[in-house]
Amino acid sequence: MGANKTQATALSVDDFLSRVEPEQKREEARQLDTLFRRVTGFEPVMWGPSIIGYGRYHYRYDTGREDDFLATGFSPRKAQHSIHILPGYTDYSDILARLGKHSTGKSCLYIKRLSDIDMDVLAELIAAGLKDLDAKWKVHPR
Predict the structure, then answer these.
(1) What pLDDT sits at residue 60?
(2) Rounded mean pLDDT of 52-65?
(3) Among 28, 119, 128, 130, which is most exposed with the fewest C-beta within 10 angstroms?
């Protein structure tokens, strides 16, 4: 069983944020960083070259595969923000219905502009996702 391709790195979150383009995406990424820090209480860590993670958990599947992964976080992608807050096994449709304009993947939420969503609802979603993840796999600050 191989390790995840995406691993925690020693790269600087501040350096990464300062290079996000365009400027509006950079400002929104800083807003997301502030929100994630406030909601999680965790300091951010870079995962791979472009994901900012808050907290970590260790998983072990029945297949024997195990590794560490970020508990929650985001990546300010060119087209949209990719937000990692959906553990993949909990239904958040009631919260998502109040969020605003977004799309979802298996475990990611995609948002083009923060002005399209309710940031208080996003904070609620981050907290709910982290709580549900911690109930299944213990979440650690680093």
Answers:
(1) 83
(2) 89
(3) 119
Q: How confident is the model at residue 63 (pLDDT cuts 50, 70, 90)?
A: confident
Say how far apart CA 107 and CA 121 lie, in whole Å. 17
Phi/psi of residue 41, each to 5°? 75, 10
* String of DSSP letters for 22-72: SHHHHHHHHHHHHHHHHHH---EEEETTTEEEEEEEEEE-TTS-EEEEEEE
The closest of 66, 91, 80 to 117, measured between CA atoms, is 80
Q: How far is CA 91 from CA 51, 57, 71, 101, 126, in A?
A: 24, 20, 17, 18, 13
Fold of 13-140: Aspartate Aminotransferase, domain 1 (3.90.1150)
Cα separation, 1 vs 4, in Å, equals 9
Interstrand relation of 44-47 and 109-111 (parallel, antiparallel or unpaired): unpaired
| Selected residue with higher pLDDT from 67 and 76 | 76
- Mention every residue, 6+ apart, whose C-beta is less than 8 A from residue 87: 107, 129, 132, 133, 136
The model's pTM is 0.92
